[in-house]
Specification:
The chain has 481 residues and is of the alpha/beta class. The protein contains 18 helices and nine strands. α8 links the parallel β3 and β4. It is globular and about 70 Å long.
């Protein structure tokens, strides 16, 4: 199955925000339904908020206007930690979307590589391979997330990249608008179709890199995202009114925390950086509303989504379904004061042993070098392109020549240092465990494989976007995103 991916330009996003854009993700070309599909649809919504400390949520966004509190009141919250694992976004989101830690998937930094997801399929791959009629979507304002959604041969049906919109708060608002449009589109489904939607927001992490995790700007970003989530949850409620028999399960999580002072941001093993959380609201389960579970892990998220949508498990997952595993279910408690109980749980987490602390710190330093170089090369390229675009006699031609030199030699330098980074990652434990389950077969058999080979790495645009220049859509986030 070859899927056409959609990349949204700023005008399209603006239309959505204004309410004039067409609904995103309305299923089309779905195969014939069997009798089993006439049951109530299962919808799973995963909301990812990058670099968000749970204690800051509890301090600044634990009120009736925040979607964080609404989700906590309607579900189960786990204060978790990724201590002994790297606190860089690429590896952590890969764990969330594959169900295995970095000692298996081998992702070490934020330079995207498709190879890990051929060995360790993403939740999109596993759902689409199990049942192509499940409508899968990813909406994000960091292209790395969209790349994960497209990787592995069975990518998401709808892959929407939202480009930068004046500020990261505005960009997350555009993600929110597109997410709401996608959710409300389920009310127009021709039949009860299962769906999985991953919506990703980045402004909290960006505020942490620009001002520090203890700053007022970081606090405001947490408040903003809480308000965005509240709007998304309201859209879910509206969709449920339109289709009362549909079931919606919601998971909210983060990839890592943030240092409190302005500096490196994250990547090391301080408790502020390893801090994570998982909020899980299973459809139809109200007996555990407002509860807590300290056995949740971000590696549990993909197995849980598969279980909710009836897809089979891999035998080599590191996580287990939060709605099925007895050890996790037996860990649910209902505290008299959820906020204080979560704060107490956060205070329990500390540093790893000194060996792991030093090893992971060394890995972060080395694997960050090619990422920094890639950003630097990209910034030079952008500056030179601005001169080329002015069409200045002789000067623009010279700038274009220098740009080609920068891209060629800069690319070689990034590739060389990244090869060293991957080697250091392996020597420090990343990607050392091979899968025990076989890889997914090529989509559509040998003919599709040949077709994909002939297409190469070309990106296909949705028809309404015409000759949109994808290069203009790419926006490198702040350090480590």
């Amino acid at each position: 199955m070859t899927t056409i991916k959609k990349f949204l330009c700023g005008a399209t996003v603006a239309g959505m925000v204004a309410g004039t854009g067409a609904a995103v993700g309305v299923p089309s070309g779905l195969s014939a339904l069997t009798a089993d599909w006439l049951l109530a649809a299962e919808h799973v919504l995963l909301i990812g908020v990058d670099g968000t400390n749970l204690d800051k949520i509890l301090q600044y966004a634990y009120d009736e206007d925040s979607g964080f509190k609404t989700a906590m009141d309607q579900g189960i919250t786990g204060a978790t930690s990724e201590v002994n694992h790297t606190t860089i976004s690429g590896p952590s989101w890969s764990t969330i979307l594959t169900g295995v830690w970095d000692d298996k998937h081998g992702v070490v930094n934020n330079l995207f590589r498709p190879e890990p997801y051929d060995q360790w399929p993403t939740v999109f791959n596993l759902l689409e391979y199990h049942n192509p009629d499940i409508e899968t979507s990813v909406i994000a304002d960091w292209d790395y997330i969209n790349d994960i959604g497209a990787a592995g041969g069975y990518g998401a049906d709808n892959n929407l990249f939202i480009p930068f919109q004046d500020s990261w708060a505005d960009t997350d608002a555009a993600v929110t608008a597109a997410t709401i449009s996608q959710i409300l589109a389920t009310a127009n489904n021709p039949a009860d179709i299962d769906s999985f939607l991953f919506s990703y927001q980045v402004q909290v992490d960006e505020a942490g890199h620009s001002f520090g995790g203890g700053s007022q700007e970081y606090a405001q970003a947490v408040i903003n995202v809480g308000a965005n989530i509240q709007q998304i949850l309201a859209a879910v409620a509206e969709a449920k009114l339109a289709n009362p028999d549909d079931n919606w399960s919601i998971i909210i999580t983060t990839d890592h925390g943030h240092q409190q002072s302005l500096g490196f941001g994250h990547g090391f093993q301080s408790p502020n950086e390893t801090s994570q959380f998982v909020i899980f609201d299973q459809a139809g389960d109200h007996a555990t509303d407002g509860s807590q579970n300290l056995n949740y892990s971000i590696a549990d998220i993909t197995p849980t989504i598969l279980a909710l949508l009836g897809a089979p498990m891999r035998s080599d997952f590191d996580g287990t379904p939060m709605n099925v595993d007895p050890a996790i279910l037996d860990s649910i408690v209902t505290p008299t004061d959820l906020k204080q109980s979560l704060l107490d749980a956060i205070s329990m987490y500390g540093y790893p042993n000194i060996g792991n602390d030093l090893t992971l710190g060394f890995r972060t330093v080395i694997t960050s070098i090619p990422y920094f170089l890639d950003k630097f090369v990209g910034q030079i390229d952008t500056f030179l392109q601005s001169i080329v675009d002015q069409d200045i006699f002789l000067i623009s031609g010279l700038a274009e020549f220098v740009q080609q030199i920068n891209d060629f030699f800069g690319g070689l330098l990034v590739d060389a240092t990244n090869a060293v980074a991957l080697g250091v990652g392996y020597l420090t434990g990343a990607g050392v465990i091979a899968p025990t389950d076989p890889p997914l077969p090529p989509p559509g058999g040998s003919e599709a494989s040949l077709f994909d080979t002939l297409l190469g790495d070309h990106n296909w645009l949705s028809p309404d976007e015409g000759s949109l220049d994808l290069g203009s859509l790419l926006d490198f986030g702040a350090l480590f995103d």
